[in-house]
Write a structure and sequence with these properties.
The chain contains no helices and eleven strands. The protein is about 0% helix and about 45% strand.
């Protein structure tokens, strides 16, 4: 059986030297918050996303949110349809135009294979509706 390099702690630094931006458009805007969600973030730092897949954006202000952690306080942002597939890596920033909405803290697979939860860490979390999200709005991970 092969070792998982993330679980085994074999990486001493982020191995992603260069990668393309991942772009998508909002297909759902969400408006809800929870203080006890219990998201179990995967121990890995990256996930590949394919063109036309739809994934959920969830915001948190939990400073300890990182791969392998549990996240309780969240705000639902929306669902994004991927237009330009690629690899999203922990630490990537999520942008609406030039406005940074936060950085990727990790991933949760509660609802797979339906969709991946992409957890975005920001100091002041809010819902997609309160962030001014609208259907068709372009978002970029870079």
């Amino acid at each position: 059986m092969s070792k998982d390099p993330y679980k085994e702690g074999l990486f001493t630094k982020n191995p992603y030297a260069k990668k393309s931006a991942v772009t998508g458009r909002l297909v759902v805007v969400l408006d809800s918050k929870l203080d006890n969600r219990g998201l179990q973030l995967l121990p890995v730092i990256s996930r590949a996303v394919r063109r036309f897949d739809i994934h959920e954006l969830i915001f948190t202000d939990d400073k300890g949110a990182k791969p392998g952690s549990t996240v309780d306080k969240i705000a639902y942002g929306g669902f994004v349809e991927i237009e330009n597939g690629g690899v999203i890596v922990t630490g990537d920033k999520l942008y609406r135009s030039e406005n940074c909405l936060g950085e990727v803290a990790g991933f949760d697979v509660t609802h797979m294979p339906n969709h991946l939860n992409i957890i975005i860490k920001n100091e002041a979390i809010d819902t997609g509706l309160n962030l001014g999200f609208d259907l068709g709005m372009e978002l970029v991970f870079r």
